[in-house]
Amino acid sequence: MLYFLSHFTNTRKAYTKLSVYIVCVSICACTNPATPAEDVSTTQHSASNKRHATNILQQKEHNKREHGAAKSEKREQHAEEQTLTRLRIISLSPASTDFLMELELSASIVGKTRFCDASLQARELGTGFRPQLETLAEMKPTHIFTQSAGDAARMRNAFTGHPELQIALMKYDTLEDNIRSLQRISNLTRASKKKVKAIAQALEKKYRSLIHRLKTQQLALNKGHLKTLAIAGTDPLIVAGRSTYINEIVELLGGTLVSPESQLAWPPASKEWLMQQEPDIVFYLGKDFALPEALTSGFKTNTTFFHNRFAQPGPELFKDIAELSHALGR
Length: 330
Known about the structure:
The structure is a single chain. The chain has 330 residues and is α/β, with parallel strands linked by helices. Among the domains are: 89-212, Rossmann fold (3-Layer(aba) Sandwich); 222-327, Nitrogenase molybdenum iron protein domain (Rossmann fold, 3-Layer(aba) Sandwich). Helix content is 55%, strand content 12%. The chain is built from eleven helices and ten strands. Strands 3-2-1-4-5 form a five-stranded parallel beta sheet, sandwiched between helices. Strands 6, 7, 8, 9 and 10 form a five-stranded mixed beta sheet that branches. Helix 6 (175-189) runs antiparallel to helix 7. The longest helix has 51 residues, at 36-86. It is flat. Mean pLDDT is 80; it is low at 1-32 and 78-83.
């Protein structure tokens, strides 16, 4: 009897523990149900949080790069402005002066010739040939541009102790020389790398496009049907020879340049020879003088005159080509 009571009591305790365990499990199951749908939702939420965090990091990196680029650009602009301020250019070549002005470097020109643009605020140094070396030294230039090989040699010998001074011998004999001179001036000054380079590239593209267009048109026309004379001076009478850029221009405009047989680029001519040529077009290159009436009256009545054209190489040369090509229907 005692054994039975003891066994019954132990069994009841066991069933009680089992009941308590089952109730706890049921409560947990009801409180935290774990269904497949909720697992998917949790995963998607986690992925969304990851994407959001990634986007935030990417945005921060982008902002950092932009901020760094802005600071770098600002530093570069400041450095360019300082370089521009330091530039002190003496131009003993009117063509070089014109190109410098086209590149928006007028403020850096401290010396010019009497043949340069009159509006340019810079010290005048005569004709530009055989300049006074003492005067040049006093002006403390960073760059000197000249078209005289003799002057370039003199200045280089005189300023050997100034390695920072750049003395550039410029050449403007052909249209290609003009374009290369533009490139060279841009490279030598380096005043504002982006700005000057952009202007130089735009000008070069414009010049080459004009030359290409005229050359292409000439292939479809009868070349040389316009007999052309180019007068550079009247006392003595000087005309353009076939080794000059004038000959290139005349050919581009559909003409043939008439010139005395000579090895000179700008040979002298007589009035009698001039009248015998009977040109269709006369280009007058002078700026400071006019063609005498006695000279113009000797040409045939249908001769066309173009005054103050191609007086000097440089950017004005290409402007004249464009204007005359339009006037001549090219």
